[in-house]
TrEMBL record:
GO terms of molecular function: transmembrane transporter activity
Name this polypeptide is given: ABC transporter permease
Domain MacB-like periplasmic core: 19-225, 478-711
Membrane topology type: Multi-pass membrane protein
Family the entry assigns: Belongs to the ABC-4 integral membrane protein family.
Domain ABC3 transporter permease C-terminal: 255-374, 748-860
Alphabetical keyword list: Cell membrane, Membrane, Transmembrane, Transmembrane helix
Membrane-traversing stretches: 20-43, 251-275, 295-321, 341-368, 389-412, 418-438, 474-495, 742-761, 796-819, 831-850
Organism the protein comes from: Priestia koreensis
């Protein structure tokens, strides 16, 4: 083995330039992998701190949403002693929910919350203070808006009611942060509030911090075993933001895998070049008695040595690259990075894994070289026709199946999984038939080469085909880069454009004030809308809260069959659920486009307007009568829905269709509802509050002034749930996310192209070194040195252009298959990137081949002719 190792080292040092280039190329791939590992860990660490600051450093909230239920001290003690529970802190909501007995007394009061002055309690967003401290006995923390409105400060005294106990005077100990979510709450000391409200030892919710967040689901299961009625907030938004890093982690990780795959292809190409160059040496070794396994070990030793060196250089280079890219990554991600977080276990583990994988890909060419007969080893060219018949057949079958599945699925089945299967089959076809695809593409292009280079065109094509064995992986790297670019940019662009359109359709007036209230809760008051609408330079549209109702006596013979339509059996009849909503069509039409298909939108008492979609689906037309009953009058008994006869008259209505509109602005195009006048909605169903107020600023010059006024109006509205939505801010955030992912994608593709550049330079240098006698013969027959350089440079350009062309074709097909899986049915071709691919790919070939080609000009003809 020692002799074999020495021989492997000697064979490597005999071609120092090729070995150095190979190590450099693979080292770049390893450096990128290590840099990605370090930077992802750094982003995770920084993002974790941001997420903890945003959501608090706790893992679960468990308890009830009603004042009638509470966690007893015994249950609290039991939860505290569960495995993996580090610490807990209690919260008391004495007047939460709708079932407590003091709704009238507390209707105009802020939400009372009892907290303990503990570190874990300070992690909750409801306890964030702008000044002061958390309350002790007889103290209160008040909202920022209340302190400004009433000119209150630390030490001020207020009186609050505490039914069923007497009112008490308390001292202000702190002021909450200026936050919409904190506008309508006050904080008291936990034990003192329990005494003041007669709820001693009551705990409404318990904040839980775990020793290991990975055990969250196990703890949730144990909590459900304690009480199945527990409401548990698993902090899923926090976990999602922490895991996905704003969506960057899966993108960076996926592209990191692509880079490693490209590095493996580069190394495989390098190894095959080495084997190709050493054919005759290997044949001589075989003839003098060397065994097959000894040749295999020589090649494997080369692989191990080169990969270990590449791994060491890549480890060092990755650390340096991490330091260099730290600020750039922070700028792209929008996450502030103070210092690198290096997890050495992951760094060394990924390095060893990459080395192991790259060594593994060298096994097949090593075994192939060992099994080759000495006579075969003397053959200098590679005949693509000798490619394994099974691979060719499998590739063709996979391609045919991919196209057939895509077509049939598009026409008949419409299953996203089948589109993904088609993508997998197409990728398999490309992997198995890459050499065949490259050869046939070059042969098709040979006519073009002949037109450009006269009689040398066919020579260029034949030389490119002859060298496919050593160049297939290089062309594959170019193809990989172009495919990733086209598929990635195509999907990112379609998703961005679709999301933008969806947001713009949903919020056409650019600003929204949402009540953020549940279905059965009161929303914003009509007076609130009047105050918004009265602001100068504002056009506002109200969106009233709706009720869910069931049809009564629906004629199912007129109902159109539709998979999306769900029916319910009520008192033995098939009915459907629809929404009933008050709409001010006159006000809406002043600010939004309203297309009336038939009839009118002028509504009297029991007149309704429906959408064209509802009319077609349920068979309604102008003059049709619609009978409905509110969902609260329908109950589920004995496995079927039945109408409560006592509430039937009170909660049912009969409508007449007087108008049909194309769609209702601010609503889903397939929203199935009936729209009545707001006055009738109030009179018949006692619903007169608003779910949302949409508005736009008619003059940009007054935007800041309007926003300030809206903030003031919102602050005075007695609700802690109000959410303000700004369309432009949402679109800006979407654009930032797109730019982040696009930047990462372009950097990755650029690095893949650089790998192909190194590989092709290495490949062409080796190939030209083998064919010096051929070029010397051409020069002896009268071909000048300049033409020789042109031929060799054109050969490299042909190879990379072929990779670019195939990448554009297959990338476009895969892009459209994936878009079909995402239910996007418009043919998409990324013309800018397809054009760029076709222009850049031959440039890579030109630059990579130029230096080796120029070296031919200086070679002595007679010396080269004396070679075989």
């Amino acid at each position: 083995m020692k002799t074999i190792l020495k021989l492997a080292v000697r064979l490597m040092t005999a071609r120092k330039s090729r070995t150095i280039l190979s190590i450099a190329g693979v080292s770049i791939g390893f450096s990128l992998l290590i840099a990605a590992t370090v930077l992802i860990a750094t982003l995770e660490h920084a993002n974790t701190s941001i997420v903890k600051e945003k959501y608090g450093d706790y893992d679960l909230v468990v308890g009830y949403q009603s004042a009638e239920s509470f966690i007893t001290p015994h249950i609290v003690h039991k939860i505290q002693h569960l495995d993996d529970v580090e610490k807990t802190t209690p919260f008391l909501y004495p007047y939460i929910g709708k079932e407590h007995s003091f709704q009238d007394e507390m209707a105009l009061q802020p939400m009372y919350i009892g907290v303990k002055d503990e570190q874990l309690a300070r992690e909750h967003q409801l306890t964030k203070l702008s000044s002061g401290r958390l309350p002790k006995r007889g103290e209160v923390v008040i909202p920022y808006s209340l302190s400004k409105a009433e000119n209150l400060h630390i030490g001020s005294k207020l009186q609050f009611p505490f039914p069923p106990q007497r009112p008490q005077e308390v001292r202000v100990s702190g002021i909450l942060k200026k936050d919409q979510a904190l506008q309508s709450i006050v904080l008291f000391d936990f034990r003192w509030l329990g005494d003041a409200t007669g709820q001693i030892n009551h705990t409404t919710t318990l904040l839980i911090k775990l020793t290991d967040a990975k055990q969250k689901q196990h703890i949730i299961k144990q909590l459900k075993e304690i009480d199945s009625d527990f409401y548990i907030d698993p902090q899923s938004m926090k976990d999602k933001e922490q895991d996905q890093m704003g969506g960057l982690k899966p993108v960076v990780s996926g592209l990191g895998v692509v880079i490693v795959f490209g590095s493996m292809l580069l190394f495989l190409s390098t190894l095959q070049m080495s084997i190709q160059e050493r054919k005759r040496e290997f044949s001589v070794l075989r003839l003098i008695g060397a065994q097959k396994k000894q040749l295999i070990w020589i090649i494997l030793y080369q692989s191990v040595i080169m990969n270990v060196i590449s791994g060491m250089i890549g480890l060092l280079g990755g650390m340096v690259l991490s330091i260099v890219l730290k600020s750039t990554v922070a700028q792209i991600s929008g996450i502030m990075i103070q210092k690198l977080a290096i997890h050495w276990g992951a760094v060394f583990g990924n390095t060893l894994l990459a080395i192991a994988l790259t060594i593994m890909v060298s096994v097949l060419p090593a075994v192939g070289a060992g099994n080759q007969s000495p006579l075969q080893a003397y053959r200098a060219s590679y005949d693509i026709r000798k490619q394994r018949l099974l691979s060719v057949i499998t590739s063709g079958v996979a391609l045919a199946l991919s196209m057939s599945i895509t077509f049939c699925n598009y026409v008949y089945i419409h299953s996203p999984k089948l589109y993904l299967l088609a993508v997998g089959l197409l990728i398999l076809s490309v992997l198995l038939g890459l050499s065949l695809f490259i050869k046939n593409t070059i042969l098709v292009l040979m006519n073009v080469f002949s037109a450009l280079f006269s009689s040398y065109g066919k020579l260029i094509g034949r030389n490119a085909v002859r060298q496919l064995r050593r160049s297939t992986q290089i062309v594959g790297i170019v193809l990989l880069g172009i495919m990733v670019c086209i598929v990635g940019t195509g999907i990112l662009t379609v998703v961005k454009n679709g999301t933008e359109k969806s947001i713009q359709d949903q919020y056409p007036l650019s600003h929204v004030i949402s009540s953020n209230s549940a279905y059965d809760e009161r929303g914003l008051s009509p007076e609130f809308y009047d105050r918004i609408d009265s602001i100068p330079h504002v056009e506002a549209v109200p969106v009233f809260k709706s009720i869910a109702a069931y049809t009564q006596g629906l004629d199912m013979n007129r109902v159109k069959k539709d998979d999306k339509l769900m029916t319910y059996t009520i008192n033995g009849r098939q009915e459907v659920m629809i929404g009933v909503e008050g709409v001010d069509f006159q006000r809406m039409s002043q600010s939004l486009p309203l297309h009336v298909v038939e009839g009118t939108t002028d509504l009297n008492d029991n007149h309704v307007v429906i959408t064209q979609y509802t009319a077609k689906l349920l068979g309604y037309k102008i003059g049709s009568m619609i009978n409905v009953i509110e969902d609260t009058a329908v109950s589920f008994t004995k496995n079927e829905l039945t109408v409560n006869e006592k509430q039937k008259m009170k909660k049912s209505a009969r409508f007449k269709v007087v108008g049909i509109i194309k769609t209702l602005p601010l609503s889903d195009p397939e929203d199935m509802g009936v729209y009545v006048s707001p006055s009738f909605m109030k009179k018949r169903f006692s619903v007169d509050t608003l779910d949302e107020v949409h508005y736009k600023v008619t003059s940009k010059a007054f935007e800041d002034q309007v926003e300030k006024t809206v903030q003031d109006v919102t602050t005075n509205e007695p609700s802690s749930k109000i959410i303000l939505f700004n369309l432009q801010e949402e679109l800006n955030q979407l654009s930032r996310q797109f730019n982040q992912r696009f930047s990462i994608l372009i950097v990755t593709v650029s690095l893949i192209c650089f790998l192909s550049f190194i590989g092709l330079m290495n490949s062409m240098a080796s190939s030209l070194r083998e064919r010096v006698s051929e070029f010397a013969t051409l020069r002896a027959l009268g071909t000048n040195a300049r033409r020789i350089v042109q031929i060799t440079v054109a050969e490299g350009m042909v190879l990379t252009f072929t990779g670019g062309l195939l990448g554009a074709v297959f990338g476009t097909i895969i892009l459209n298959q994936l878009l079909l899986a995402l239910d996007y049915h418009k043919l998409t071709i990324s013309w800018p990137f397809v054009s760029l691919a076709l222009l850049v790919s031959p440039v890579i070939g030109f630059l990579a081949t130029l230096s080796p080609a120029l070296s031919l000009r200086k070679r002595p003809i007679l010396q080269d002719l004396s070679k075989e």
